[in-house]
Amino acid sequence: MRRIAKCLIALSLAGALDAAVKLPSLISDHMVLVSGVPVRIWGTADAGEAVRVELEGQTAAAAADGSGKWAVWLKPLTVAGPLEMTVAGSNTVVVRDVLVGEVWLGSGQSNMEFPLRRAMRHEEEIAHAGYPMIRLFQVKKTVAEQPADDVTGQWEVSTPESAEHFSAVEYFFGRHLQETLHVPVGLIESDWGGTPAQSWTSREALEADPALKFLFDDWTRILADYPAAKARYDQQLAAWNEGAAKAKAEGTTAPARPGEPQGPGHPYTPAGLYNAMIAPLTPYAIRGAIWYQGESNANQEHAYRYRKLFADMIEDWRNRWGEGDFPFLFVQLANFKSNISWPVLRESQTETLRLAKTGMAVAIDVGESNDIHPTNKQAVGLRLALAALHVAYSKDGEYSGPLYRAATAEGDSLRVWFTHAGGLGARGGEALTGFTVAGSDGSFVPADARIEGETVVVSSTRMKTPIAVRYAWEDDPACNLMNGAGLPASPFRSDEPHYGQ
Description:
Blueprint: H1 2-19, E1 32-34, E2 39-44, E3 50-55, E4 58-63, E5 69-74, E6 80-88, E7 92-108, H2 110-113, H3 122-127, E8 131-138, E9 155-158, H4 160-163, H5 168-181, E10 185-191, H6 203-208, H7 213-250, H8 272-278, E11 288-292, H9 306-321, E12 328-331, H10 341-351, E13 358-361, H11 377-391, E14 403-410, E15 413-419, E16 425-426, E17 435-438, E18 444-446, E19 448-452, E20 455-459, E21 468-471, E22 481-482, E23 492-493
Parallel strand pairs: 1-7, 7-10, 7-11, 8-10, 11-12, 12-13
Antiparallel strand pairs: 2-5, 3-4, 3-6, 6-7, 8-9, 14-15, 15-20, 16-22, 17-18, 17-21, 19-20, 21-23
Helix pairs in contact: 5-11, 9-10
């Protein structure tokens, strides 16, 4: 009986511990809250348990619902910190070193994931990464079939040790904001190399757009083929293990490991990364998001449709956060020797500027022909920050490179009009390159180009009457048009839909 009693007491204590007030990983020491907007604090407790939250002179209370979930709202806070927040129910949790300022989410694939320790001049950058007013949160990579309640991660103060493994683009973006705005900045990194945009979009949003039905058709085929693909992979892996062991014994180079096939639990799962790595973040207020992705959708089937997919994803995120049209800024794919789909994917990215409060950092001049992961993440982070200062903070100053607006015929030439064209010029004062023109036969040839004010006049001795013009319409173009702020012009073609703002 005594043993049974001890077991009952142990079970009772375990139940009490399980029922204790708990907070999601985002609400923890060193976190940053967004200033000027209502603040949601949430967590779990025993069903019906009363929970009280105290922060900066405010108190809010709620009772956990039948599933043990609770949430309270605090009135907007001004820039402040460090603060302490107390969350009390049957137990008390104290969250320390809380700052109030700006919070941005960074997401996408490998160029967003690319860490500071691999960036250009990384040793110098890491050594100077001590910023007490910048806080970093990395979301652990995982896939889920249904929206999750929490992520794995923790807030860290920006130091050389914490920053070297953090997204280089997001770090440089946040550093520029912090140095310009002089407020605390929290950066949330949620990305996964090699992943397509459909993995980051909710299933509901994907299913709501008939134009994206092909994504589910493709995935259905992949799942149907998976058993056979997995069997082949297992055979290949066994052979590889044998070959690798033999190579190790002989001191030779091991063969390349076979790639695991797509299937259940793969990061390519439509909505799989949204469920696991975005949905749990949506209760946490953010100022906006930055995005670097597109490489995995830059193929013949997806590149043109990406303009629908990407726009749907942006609207989906905005709906899930419930903060209205929060700023969404993205990086256009850099130059890289790849395939003809890359120019179309870049065009699809540019088309997304039709959405309110969007901005694009053009990177056509900072890529590396033979490396899909260029190391100059400083320029990319800065250009995203310039867009943020305009879109999110209404700061003056140029924030975009020249964007195509129109082309008008003038005899045997075309005059190309741009927005963001103040101080139009060629990088380094060299001859203008990157333009081609076509006549009625649709065959494009290199064009002579000269700058006249805020326009470019193009022509070719090989063509009497050009009717279309393209600029930097290649995967890895030689191009050098820029504006007076040193920001490069976006690639474009006049013979397809376009948008300039």
